[in-house]
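U., I forgot to send this yesterday:
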Amino acid sequence: MNILVINCGSSSLKFQLINAETEEVLAKGICERIGLDGSRIVYQPTGGEKESTESPMPDHTQAIRLVLESLTNEKTGAVRSLDEIGAVGHRLVHGGEKFASSTIITDEVIKAVEECNDLAPLHNPANLIGIAACQELMPHVPMVGVFDTAFHQTMPEKAFIYGLPYEYYKKYKVRRYGFHGTSHSYVSKRAAVLLGKPYDQVRTIVCHLGNGASVCAVKNGKSVDTSMGFTPLEGLIMGTRSGDIDPGIMEFIAEKENIDIYEVMDVLNQKSGVLGISEVSSDFRDLQVAALAGKEEAIRAMTIFAYHVAKYIGSYVAAMNGVDAIAFTAGIGENNRYVRNDICEYLGYLGIEIDQEKNSKAGEEIIITTPESKTAVMVIPTNEELVIARETFALVKQ
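Result:
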């Protein structure tokens, strides 16, 4: 069965067509600038050339239409007709407490996701638009929702309750939810394979380090804590997000700058993180170039970022009373050896010994510690699309 995986943003749409039996990617691409001038679709069939075509996309329905046309194109299409697509798997960011696992999308599910919109106002509405577009163009194809938050629903109350009046949890479900769940799930499973141990007998700390970043403690196959919280703003310093701060800073800045809470939140989400600290860039590739050139502001941002990741790792070692493996993933985690090395320099107490030759590798699955290291450190490229395809296939083949 071929599964179409859709990851829908407010103005973009990523897609992959995956053969669920062989797990081969048949084609992939992205629609960019949906609803804006200069919209385009980038499409690449496996083994073929990448194609970039500018085409008007006033809405997501048109974007989906172009995706389907590309997939069934006579010359470069991955399938001959839409009849060869057995199901569609949708990435859904927030399922609240309603969804602890993936689910077949029904009208009731859509309503429940809509009720979570105020928990993820930038993501859930866009995800729902993608579902509606697919349902319009592929009305008889089953749809599955795979939630970023679902993997973290195994967290115990002691990990997800905030130090706020408990009534806010009872009335509004204010709690830690966590994100990047599909990535943390995939990487922690691969870590167990690399260790040669059963998944339910391994303690792994997954560091998903990209422009958005989070750390997750996975004990015996279950998420027991994670750094992102009620929103993706909590936790690590990220590309443009502040991560953990003293909440009192919000009132202080609002008064000093004469701005309201919405403007303060914009600062925390869009103008902070390594961008705000460095005043150079939110892109770690730019920061790394600047740091290697000796620019103090870039060095400062990178140093602070690594320190905060190491602190979270240490706290999760305590939460699980030990750790068997630490896994780096996502854009920075997979490709930036300097960041990995800087983080691991704080972890000597775990008996970690980095093999610098192995650590110099980028974008490949590898254990980067020496055989003598007491704790394994590894790099595992994430594959959220494959997780979505697997979850979708498991549900629709029943």
